[in-house]
Each structure stands twice: as C-alpha cells, then as structure tokens.
Amino acid sequence: MPRDENKNLEIRDARKEQILSAAAKVFARRGMVAAKISDIAKEAQLSHGLVYHYFESKEQIFVTLVKKASDKSIEVVNEANQYNGTPIQKLTWMTETILRSIATGEGIYLYLIMIQASTSDAVPAEVRDVLMGDNANSPVFATIPIIIEGQNEGEIVKEDPVKLAVTYYAFIQGLAINKIQWKECPLPEAKLIMNVFQTKQEVTK
C-alpha cells in the first residue's frame, strides 16, 4: 500500500476515534435522545460537516460506541480467563483492571453508554441486537464460566452464577455512574468487591 494511502488511513482512523471519544462524553451527559450531532462536533472541536463525513447519524455513532464498549468488556474477560491464577485471582485481576479504567476515565464513558443502551427504549434496534444477541458477546455471560469454576473449587459462594454475574456488573456500573457524577468519588479496592463473592473460607485466608 502506498505511503500516502497509509497516512490517509491513519488520519481517518484517528479522526473517527476523536469523534467517538467526544460522542461518548456527550451521550453520557445528555443521553442519546437529547444529544445532537452539533454537540458532538463541538466536543470534538470539529465542523458539523466533518462529523457527517465519517458517520451518517448520531444513531450510527451510538451503535458504534455500544459495539466498542461490548468488545472492550469481552476483551477484559478473555484476558482474565488467560490470567495464570485461581478463579478468584482471575476475577480480582479483572476487577482491578476495570476499576483502573474507571479511575483514569478511559472506560467510564463506555460503561455509561452500555447502561443507556440497556435501559433506554429509544435506542436503535441494532443496539438491542448487539446486547440481546449471541450470549458469547455479553460480558455477563462471558464471566459466568469463571464464576462456575470458582464455585467448583470452593472459592466462590454457591449462588446462581447468572445472578452473581449480574450483581458483579451492577457494582461496576454503579461505580462508573458515581465517578462521572462525583469526580473525586473514592473507588473501592478490588478485594472489597471480591468479599461479596468469595466463600467465608477464602475471605479469612
């Protein structure tokens, strides 16, 4: 591929990321319904027309962000599965990674986008397809095998694995909401969250 074409692709990708990053902040503050392309353009410090050059509509931007958020969540779970440790150590590593992304602001807006996508009736149908489609693409369902493995090894409490996974992500989403509303909000250590899921025997070790 010619160098100029490579450079053009780099610029194109960087510009799209700039728009997506700005849009995540706008959607988090205003919601998908109230947000406008002009708001996103202003946040990205780009012209209204340039945003439309890369995306057809705010709905397309929102769908792209939901897919990105889902992919990043699954990526963290997959990395946790590859982590060399016991199930509870895998969950602890995953929790530390997620809390770090919330603390630095890197992942906070994507978590809020996922909450909006899950709770708003106004989201595009394509978003619901992403969230309700293949369970393999759901962070909740991707985490369940780690939980079951931990239960089999006596590390994690014997409760419904689905309910435990849902509870886990409720903690994460709640912390993301608190952090964006209150920037100085102190985040708990991963161990504090793990105490909810560990057996008494593991907690007292």
Structural description of this entry:
The protein contains eleven helices and no strands. With 205 residues, it is mainly α. The protein folds into two domains: 1-55, Homeodomain-like (Arc Repressor Mutant, subunit A); 65-203, Tetracycline Repressor, domain 2. Helix 6 (108-119) crosses helix 9 (161-181). 32% of the residues are buried. The model has no long low-confidence stretch (mean pLDDT 87).
The helix content is: over 70%
Number of strands: 0
Rg of Cα set: 19 Å
Poorly predicted ranges (pLDDT <50, ≥5 residues)? Answer: none
Quick gist of this model?
With about 200 residues, this protein is mainly α. It has helices spanning about 5-35, 35-45, 50-55, 60-80, 85-105, 110-120, 125-130, 140-150, 160-180, 190-195, 200-205.
Question: Which short descriptors sum up this protein?
Answer:
2 domains; AcrR family transcriptional regulator; transcription; Tetracycline Repressor, domain 2; HTH_TetR; Tet_transcr_reg_TetR-rel_C_sf; 205 residues; Homeodomain-like_sf; single chain
SSE topology sketch:
Layout: H1 3-34, H2 37-44, H3 48-54, H4 58-82, H5 87-104, H6 108-119, H7 125-132, H8 139-152, H9 161-181, H10 190-197, H11 200-203
Helix pairs in contact: 1-2, 1-4, 1-6, 2-3, 4-5, 4-6, 4-7, 4-8, 5-8, 5-9, 5-10, 6-9, 8-9
